[in-house]
Amino acid sequence: MFRSRGSLFVLFAGLFVGMAWIGTARASESAGLLVLGRVSDDPKSQYEPMKALLDYVVERMGDVGIHEGRILMARDPVQMTSYLRRGRVDWVSETGAGAVLLQRRAGAETLVLSERNGIRRYHTIYFARRDGAVKSIDELRGHRIAFQNRTSTSAYYVPAMELLERGMRMEILGSPSDPPVPDSVGYVFARTERNIATWVHKRVVDVGVVSNLDWSNPQHVPEFFKSDLVILRESGDVPRGVEIVREGIAPKVRARLREVLLAMADDPAAGAILDRFHQSLRFFDLDERDRRDLERLRAGVAHVGAEIE
Q: How far is CA 308 from CA 9, 18, 54, 79, 291, in A?
């Protein structure tokens, strides 16, 4: 039994490495190839819907010389930055903060925004125990806050930039039990939304942050927790999804890709593809509000990078 499991593991690992090697063929050197990328800690679950979307797009880009599509996953923004700089990926689907990070680091450009499952914008919710010591986020000095991870827009970048805007000094803690110094906000990464909610409920930390979408999801914030919790603040909205393209992509490919994505909302064939994966996806141009929101997010991400990273 042990040998069988080991063989399966080696086989899966070999297939994954092989797939990654194929996907990292330099896009600029592969005529007719469009590479779609995403930063993900769960590439297996995201691969099939991404491939369906990419196949749909590639079928409609033959007039600009695109005849093949490939998927390239990155484990974190640093790896995706490298792929963009070296021309190994053409188009990346990201969150708001992830997009502006890649724009800063790799010169990527915004193409369109994306609405996912009917959600165009979302925001951060700060919450605490109803009987806890913190009654306002302005009282956070000397207390602990739980973020999700370093790539989260709503559960890291937005709250971190808002706390910095309020003049709060922030320090990362070695563990949730470490005491922060009295004049700073101690922060930890809980990795999942469920952990954030649990840590607040069990008084491991004083305040947690999740998106309004996660707050409404009982899998992430259980309903039986909520009677003991109170919302302290809701941030302003930020775009849910941002599609970016690498610097130097051929103008005709960029223009055609944008055209195909924007037209998907009116194409029944696109809806049928996405329905297979129980998803709804729509792309749209930026309006003035979107530009303002992204500009504020861009400034906030830069502030977070300068002050606490």
A: 39, 37, 37, 21, 25
